[in-house]
Design goal:
Blueprint: H1 12-36, E1 55-63, E2 66-74, E3 79-85, H2 89-94, H3 98-112, H4 125-142
Antiparallel strand pairs: 1-2, 2-3
Helix pairs in contact: 3-4
Length: about 150
């Protein structure tokens, strides 16, 4: 009867090193899983979505000696109102196209949620251009910068 018995000698140092490497491997895999898992609270939105700091923002327009403010009110994800503040009788008399142009622009901005592709008549092209520039300036103040 010849049996070939093998005796394996393990040193305690080798067992400890192996246990440490296995522990580090498990820790590394867990770390990767935690870091690269998809976020549950992440909202998928289109690339064109613009986020705002909620509030009321103004931009000034100087007409002769009168100053008119374009006021834009925004929520976190949309424009809620666009108006002229204060529109005095002197401004209304001197610039009769100001309020009708602002009403038309405001309606389109609220519908599109953007100042792009706004249409206006040839009669109000200069007034509308000044108003759109002021609205853009107010919206730039409202945008979240990263």
């Amino acid at each position: 009867m010849s049996s070939k018995t093998k005796i394996v000698v393990l040193r305690m140092k080798e067992i400890i090193y192996t246990a440490i490497f296995i522990g580090l491997g498990i820790l590394l895999i867990t770390l990767f899983l935690v870091m690269f898992r998809p976020k549950k609270d992440a909202v998928t939105t289109s690339g064109d979505a613009v986020l705002y700091v909620p509030g009321v923002y103004t931009s000034a327009i100087t007409l002769s000696s009168q100053e008119v403010n374009v006021q834009v009110t925004v929520d976190s994800d949309k424009i809620t109102s666009v108006s002229l503040i204060p529109l005095s009788e002197a401004v209304t008399t001197m610039y009769p196209l100001m309020q009708p142009a602002m009403d038309s622009i405001s309606e389109q901005i609220l519908k599109n949620q953007s100042t792009e592709n706004i249409s206006y008549s040839q009669d109000t092209r200069y007034t509308s251009g000044v108003l759109l520039k002021a609205v853009d300036q107010a919206l730039q103040k409202a945008q979240i910068t990263e």
